[in-house]
Amino acid sequence: MKSIYSFLIVTILMLLSAPSSEAQIFDKIKSKIEDEAEKAVDKQLNKNSKTEKADKSSGSNRIQIEDNGEFTAGDSLVYATNFDRMANGSMPNQWKSTGSGSIVKISRFSGKWLNMSERTSYKLKQNIAYPDRFTVEFDLIIAADKVNDLSSLFFGFTKDNSLSRWISSSNIWHAGLEYMNSKDFVVSSRVRDLYRTGGFDLGIYANQKMHVAIAVDGDRVKIYLDETKIADTDLFRGQKFKHFFISSPLRSDSGASVLFGNFRIDTFKEDF
């Protein structure tokens, strides 16, 4: 813009000092210069306007949304299973099952793990006095070439602590990881007649660890796979007799295995 104005000043001075015979020529030149200058000014003003609009729509002034749906673990331990103290090859003495299982060590991940037998359900032998608010956490590792070498794995809560079949008919609710599809899960509550499906990339968990977290507040349950929340709804419908269970897949091909560990239950100090 400064160069345009400088050019106009110089040109005007030349016009003022030019002979009358050349005035007409310079008038035409002057008119041409003024037109060009006006176009240049309009162009610059339009550019500034567009830049200003872009700045306003770039998101700098957009309302920021804070997601407060992250899992918050309880801060007071109620129960934990430590497989590290158990002999390799043994069935953990705190757990009962419809089949069997064995404590193992594995490569790439520290600690000891329960190698779950095919088509087997597991429950704690001890009855836990669950408060109204508590959290449950555990880890799963799929030892397999691909996760769809397995069928579905289930976990949830039942009305009683008996074990007579693979998946208890007295279950209150359960979540299922459908490994055979590599990308699906289900959440079902018998007491609510609820059945919901959803998508989650299970395929990436071959030979990887998944952290499962459950947050319970009265009847409401939030379920997280790693940091992704897959459920946030009433699943208990007033059923206060809670007994955790986990059931291994019905089918395991090509030597695939499910490893379970780092199980813990926590509550909150104000509820303890």
TrEMBL record:
<feature type="compositionally biased region" description="Basic and acidic residues">
    <location>
        <begin position="42"/>
        <end position="56"/>
    </location>
</feature>
<keyword id="KW-0732">Signal</keyword>
<protein>
    <recommendedName>
        <fullName>Polysaccharide lyase</fullName>
    </recommendedName>
</protein>
<feature type="signal peptide">
    <location>
        <begin position="1"/>
        <end position="23"/>
    </location>
</feature>
<feature type="region of interest" description="Disordered">
    <location>
        <begin position="42"/>
        <end position="65"/>
    </location>
</feature>
<dbReference type="InterPro" id="IPR013320">
    <property type="entry name" value="ConA-like_dom_sf"/>
</dbReference>
